[in-house]
């Protein structure tokens, strides 16, 4: 069992626009960890700034609601250098997000920032193959959002099981 004395872990979810996939991941993860004393700050961001301050896409909101998550609110924001100092884990939704994050982290380090973030594909916790991608549902059919929901739920549960709960048992 996680104890309140264990160190807290902070998590940032990242996609391109921060209106579809990463808010879905944040909403699901928040709901799964509401009373988990091991979880600190949880946020989401985009590698792009196209949608800054926009709310999540209505299809993300509808999908979360369908699964009983009705209290999630977010304004889109772009990833910034300070995120690599602040968050323990930064999870990319696809390979483009991942390489953009690696480049941003290298740039922050070259400017003397001490970055602690472990940048990973969220899909490394997919339980299938390493680096399972969450495909951008923005231009696709509505059921793409349900697929995103199912993936980020599976990844969140595996991350909690494999990292957070395991850690707490040490
Ligand atoms: P997301 O989806 O990265 O899952 O938030 C997108 C939303 C909007 C755009 C791209 C991706 N866009 O180019 O506007």
Descriptive overview:
Its main location: cytoplasm. Pfam families: LMWPc. Keywords: Cytoplasm, Hydrolase, Protein phosphatase. Belongs to the low molecular weight phosphotyrosine protein phosphatase family. The chain has 170 residues and is an alpha/beta fold. It has one domain (2-165): 3-Layer(aba) Sandwich (Rossmann fold). The chain is 39% helix and 14% strand. The protein has five helices and four strands. The chain has helices at 21-32, 58-66, 83-86, 95-110, 143-168, and strands spanning 9-15, 39-46, 89-92, 118-121. The protein has a four-stranded parallel sheet. Helix 4 (95-110) links the parallel strand 3 and strand 4. Helix 1 (21-32) packs parallel to helix 2 (58-66) and helix 1 (21-32) crosses helix 5 (143-168). The longest helix has 26 residues, at 143-168. The protein is globular. The mean pLDDT is 94. 4-nitrophenyl phosphate (4NP) binds at residues 15-21, 50, 136, 138.
Summarize the structure.
It is found in: Cytoplasm. It is built from 5 helices and 4 strands; from the N terminus they run E-H-E-H-H-E-H-E-H. The chain is of the alpha/beta class.
Provide the fold topology.
Elements: E1 9-15, H1 21-32, E2 39-46, H2 58-66, H3 83-86, E3 89-92, H4 95-110, E4 118-121, H5 143-168
Parallel strand pairs: 1-2, 1-3, 3-4
């Amino acid at each position: 069992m996680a104890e309140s004395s264990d160190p807290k872990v902070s998590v940032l979810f990242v996609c391109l626009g921060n209106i579809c996939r990463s808010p879905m991941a944040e909403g699901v993860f928040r709901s799964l960890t509401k009373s988990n004393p091991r979880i600190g700050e949880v946020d989401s961001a985009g590698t792009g700034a196209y949608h800054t301050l926009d709310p999540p896409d209505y299809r993300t909101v509808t999908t979360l609601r369908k699964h009983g998550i009705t209290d999630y609110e977010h304004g889109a924001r772009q990833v910034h250098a300070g995120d690599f100092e602040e968050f323990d884990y930064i999870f990319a939704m696809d390979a483009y997000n991942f390489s953009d994050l690696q480049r941003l982290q290298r740039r922050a380090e070259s400017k003397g920032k001490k970055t602690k973030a472990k940048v990973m594909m969220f899909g490394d916790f997919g339980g299938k193959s390493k680096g399972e991608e969450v495909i951008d549902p923005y231009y696709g059919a509505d059921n793409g959002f349900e697929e995103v929901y199912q993936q980020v739920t599976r990844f969140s549960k595996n991350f909690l099981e494999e990292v957070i709960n395991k850690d707490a048992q040490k």
